[in-house]
Write a structure and sequence with these properties.
The structure is a single chain. The chain folds into 2 domains: about 5-150 and about 335-350, 3-Layer(aba) Sandwich (Rossmann fold); about 155-330, Rossmann fold. Helix content is about 45%, strand content about 15%. The protein has 15 helices and 12 strands. The strands form 2 sheets. A 6-stranded parallel β-sheet has the order 2-1-3-4-5-6, sandwiched between helices. Strand 1 (about 5-10), helix 1 and strand 2 form a beta-alpha-beta unit. The radius of gyration is 21 Å and the shape is globular. The model is unreliable at about 160-165 (pLDDT under 50).
Length: about 350
């Protein structure tokens, strides 16, 4: 299909790799959201940041494009596209924004401004049903047309199931990056460490491994808060196959994690998963093991971890095999891109561009 001229506006240092794959599938031209007055990676005073939004809205070369596609949401594009460019403007929503709005984590002017801007997009491409439900609740009658997407796993993670021998090793994995602050809240790392501490009291030899970049002060703070938690911070790692071969369970307790591709990658390697009910990939997890979806509660999450390790070897093997099969059959990146392209083509037809 020949696509119209599309600008893909993204943050710094660059778009999420999966979001970039969607944009490349549209032959979109990549451009920073703050090309004309840089702010996205700077801690500017709010009035200065708002002024920079205005500069970007005024300076953007709307005439070069027919459609704006924004990794965000961001505030200025729908207003600029409507009043200066007269273009359709779509948001790709696949981050913490929906949950932070829904939960009240964002307040005041920030909350109001984001809700008003989201309502003014021509349409929304929302990754996962969890985010879509929250946005529908928040926007009600102001909700723009929307299409629900999903993320997929690249071929390098589509490995064969591991031997069930490894499923009895009491090691629980989380892949998440900090460095701290709101990222700890978003990734649910505090709940995760507490859950490991609780579960370790009932599962002999249990360990929790965290792969990802976190500030030393944040790691110290969490381990001081939960001193009995047998948690190891492994840092960022390239060779995930060696990590996957040593763990038995993946646990992710995100507060509004839009999707969580690492969850699917673990499942593709045959590692059963437990996730919070506010994690987008729950829709994959619950197809394999409904008990693997838990509330945002360390107590309930620990009960699920203990329940998993109390399963028989045969039961764990079934969960492992079903996890890997599900990802191979339904959640490949190529499948996610094809679904996205069909959704975007439909959006263009609704807008009268096809």
């Amino acid at each position: 299909m020949k696509w119209p001229k599309i600008a893909f506006l993204h943050g710094r240092p660059g778009p999420h790799w999966a979001h970039g794959a969607f944009a490349r599938a549209l032959d979109a031209e990549f451009t920073y959201i703050d090309t004309y007055a840089r702010w996205h990676d700077r801690a500017d005073w709010a009035p200065i940041r708002y002024a920079k939004w205005l500069v970007n809205a005024l300076a953007f070369p709307y005439r070069k494009y027919e459609v704006l596609f924004v990794e965000g949401p961001h505030v200025w594009p729908p207003f600029g596209a409507k009043f200066l460019g007269h273009h359709p403007c779509y948001a790709l929503i696949g981050n913490e924004t929906a949950y932070f709005l829904w939960s009240g984590y964002l307040k005041g002017l920030s909350r109001w401004g984001l809700l008003e801007s989201i309502a003014r997009y021509t349409g929304l491409f929302i990754i996962g049903h969890v985010q879509a439900r929250m946005l529908k609740s928040l926007l009600a009658q102001k909700m723009p047309p929307y299409w629900i997407l999903y993320n997929g796993v690249s071929d390098k993670y589509l490995a064969e199931n591991r031997s069930s021998l490894f499923l009895d090793r009491p090691v629980v994995l989380l892949i998440a990056h900090g460095p701290g602050g709101w990222r700890t809240y978003y990734k649910g790392l505090d709940l995760w460490v507490e859950t490991i501490q609780r579960a370790a009291r009932q599962v002999k030899g249990l360990e929790g491994w965290v792969v990802g970049r976190w500030e030393e002060a944040e790691k110290v703070r969490l381990l001081e808060a939960f001193p009995e938690a047998p948690v190891r911070f492994l840092g960022a790692m390239e060779d995930m196959a060696s990590v996957f071969s040593q763990v038995s369970l993946y646990l992710h307790l995100g507060r509004g994690e839009a999707w969580g591709i690492a969850i699917l990658e673990a499942m593709a390697a045959g590692i059963p998963s437990i996730v919070s009910e506010w994690t987008g990939a729950r829709e994959a997890v619950e197809q394999v093991w409904p008990e693997g979806v838990v509330p945002l509660s360390a107590e309930k999450a620990a009960e699920a971890v203990v329940r998993y390790f109390n399963l028989s070897e045969a039961e764990k093997k079934i969960l492992s095999e079903n996890s890997a099969t599900l990802i191979r059959e339904k959640y490949r990146l190529s499948q996610a891109i094809t679904h996205f392209q069909a959704s975007f083509a439909e959006a263009l037809r609704v807008a009268g561009l096809r």
